[in-house]
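Section 4.2 – Deliverable D4.2 (structural model, holo form)

The reporting period included a commitment to supply a predicted holo structure for the target in complex with magnesium ion. Inputs used:
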Amino acid sequence: MNITKFEDLPISDEIKRSIAEIGFEEPSPIQAQSIPVILSGKDVIGQAQTGTGKTAAFSIPILEKVDPNNKHLQAIVLCPTRELAIQVSKEIRKLGKFKSGIKTLPVYGGQPIDRQIKALKSGVQVVIGTPGRVIDHINRKTLKLDDVKMVVLDEADEMLDMGFREDIELILNQTPIERQTTFFSATMPKEILELTKLYQHEPEIIKVVRKELTVPNIKQFYIETRRANKLEVLCRLIDVYNPKLSVVFCNTKRGSDELVSELQARGYFADALHGDLKQTQRDIVMDKFRQGTIDILVATDVAARGIDVDDVDMVFNYDLPQDEEYYVHRIGRTGRAGREGVSFSFVYGKEMRKMRDIERYTKCKLVKHSIPTIADVEEKKVAAFFKQVKDTVNESNLAKQINWVEALCEEQELSTLEVAAALVKLAMGEELKEEIIEEPSRKEARKSKKAKKGSTGAERGMVRLFINVGRKQRVQAKDIVGAIAGEAGISGKLVGTIDIYDKYTFVEVPKANAKKVLEKLKNVKIKGNKINIEKANKKNK
Ligand SMILES: Nc1ncnc2c1ncn2[C@@H]1O[C@H](COP(=O)(O)OP(=O)(O)OP(=O)(O)O)[C@@H](O)[C@H]1O
Ligand SMILES: [Mg+2]
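Output (structure tokens):
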């Protein structure tokens, strides 16, 4: 049977009432398919595209299964980021509005633990948290897991990835063995699916993705532009398309801070979200973005997964993401719940290859988009300004101003057209910059590669090692280089950091002793913790 109505789902009247109040008309496919299965008690792996309602798909069964008369913790939802924990917790509260006696609480790092402990003591049945803080509470015995019957891993593939795995294992191992475990994400790489067997009992795989991993209502474009021109290109796109809200993804925290400064200097309402900000600051930025006080959110991948903000109609990959999965999640911040969205990815030279990998992974083609010309931008700006002029003419009394203009024309022997043109110039500011953006040609790219011959790592006889330092460690580049030099007796030259949750970094070492170095590096510990190092390959490069 193909369920298309909430009425047909085995859910309580209280939930139906809240769904009606929220305004969901019919269940999304992932909801229609997974709610009955989860309610039946089975473990589930749910994969559905971004923005298709996975949150309610696991939240409704949680609310139905929690016993309001038992004041102990009964369900845990684990999320990779604090913002997501807050958001999921809000959604569960909304859905549970008419279910009396069920208390939920988000617990995440960066928020005073005392406040959380106090709230937990009052009897919370559903906790939505980031793994680190959940473990913290388990260790303090402020979270007791004896009555836990459901554990949900939202963004499961991310949670089971190296950086989070130990934490997740620790939590799962402490919950009752007969618990029900459900995993949700828009992406489920094969390696992860194998891992799920360790934590689930005969899971039912519910996969509602179509051929493509991304939703069809996101128009995906790429723009070839060299690094130096990215800022100008971004501004032009924003000026021409005028998105209501947009998210711009950068690969580094520093990069996002720098971009925010540049955008603010140009008069845009932009702010940054990344892992180096204090939690209060992160909360302020998210609130401002949700309210539209800022309309451009410049973020690292901390905002890539799960975040649901209405009216995000554009996503920019200012830097192309390192992982193909992240591309799917990043662009998925737009085009949610059936809305339209557009994404632009900036690529240049060698990155074209990475883009092709993304296309292969998502089974989607990115369409080339040209850089808007100054004329395009001017046309938009002039049209917007003239609309304001027209509205003013129609809506206000201009008698006094007409007299002034008449007098001016007479005294100075000017035509009204000349006066009007001068006023337009004054009002719109100086003419727009004449900076010329050249599109990089392939020939040019080849030429520059030739000129640089001998300067790439490979040509200097170096190889790159990929280091996964684990999410929890606040590791700086110098710690890694120090530890490597100490252990392996080589001078590791750090070639760059990519800070997806501070997890990944690369180090370049001489090819001749790469094998030996890799062997030795198995013993390396940073701040007492083991790290994972391997030769960079296509996936992690
Ligand atoms: N049945 C429904 N009808 C209409 N809108 C819905 C329905 N279910 C959920 N939504 C809305 O769709 C939006 C996206 O939902 P949600 O955040 O759960 O997506 P998701 O599948 O978890 O996406 P992601 O992979 O990005 O985490 C939310 O704003 C949510 O309120
Ligand atoms: Mg989600």
